[in-house]
Amino acid sequence: GGIPSGLAEYFTADDVPGDSMPLLKSKLPPIPNVGLALRWTAALHSMERFTEAPSFMTNRVAKRWVSRVRALAEGFYPAVEVLEAHGIDEEEEYRIGNANTIVSLMIRTGGGMLGVKGLKQLQLLLGTDLSDLCDGTTFPESARGVAKIRAQLGQPVLLGGGARHGVVRLAIGATDICEAVESSIAMRKANNASSSSDDEEDPFAA
Fold first, then answer.
1. Per-residue confidence of the chain (206 residues) as pLDDT tens digits?
2. Rg (Cα) of the chain, in Å, rounded?
3. Which among 69, 59, 57, 61 is positioned nearest to 92, based on CA atoms?
4. What distance in Å separates the CA atoms of residue 24 and residue 41, rounded to the nearest whole number?
5. DSSP string spanning the chain?
6. Peptide bond preceding 22: is omega within 30 degrees of 0, i.e. cis?
7. Does the predicted TM-score (pTM) go above 0.70?
8. How many CA atoms lie within 13 A of 114 on its CB side?
């Protein structure tokens, strides 16, 4: 078959090696891929920012974030259940903070585990200010502060292996970690705090 016409909306000739795919390269527009260049520029900035931060601080932020999110989720069992990702323990040494920084959650209602459709509805509601519904009838007025919070979750995905339910994902990225570390460093400088111990430099220290 031929080359899909829509491919030119996503790729340019610069994205394809001419020696191995000359036909494909000839069918794509001979212009720079500005979108790809911008994404790489942003990605390189984030990578440089992350590598410049003290590694013991970035590792500790990631590890403690995962630990606290999992503990919070487990406190709402059985409505919320953490999906255990078996088989990746041997890879943890290569992960930030030796932890999987993506926490997948299964949501259970009276009708059982939510599928992708139900999770997408939940995702939409969590990203919406629902404080107007806290009228004492739909939701209690005391929940207005919580209902006002808008939270963005990762896109729900369907589990494999014949499962009929899905998961929503929470994750901490390099930008979040850098902000936590940089905020801690800035506070220490402002307060002229001592840096004699690791706990004092820990951005998540109590």
1. 577 878 888 889 988 888 888 888 888 999 888 888 899 999 999 999 999 999 999 999 999 999 999 999 999 999 999 998 776 555 666 677 778 888 999 999 988 999 999 999 999 999 999 999 999 999 999 999 999 999 888 889 988 877 888 999 888 889 999 999 999 999 888 887 554 555 545 555 54
2. 23
3. 59
4. 26
5. ----GGGGGT--GGGS-TTT-HHHHHHS-SS--HHHHHHHHHHHHHHHHHHHS-HHHHHHHHHHHHHHHHHHHHTTTTTEEEPP-TT-GGGGGGSGGGS--EEEEEEEETTEE--HHHHHHHHHHHTS--GGG-SSSSS-GGGHHHHT----PEEEEE-STT-S-EEEEEE--HHHHHHHHHHHHHHHHHHT---SSHHHH-TT--
6. no
7. yes
8. 21
Which amino acid, one-letter code, is at 34?
V
- Contact between residue 168 and residue 114 where contact means Cβ atoms under 8 Å apart: no
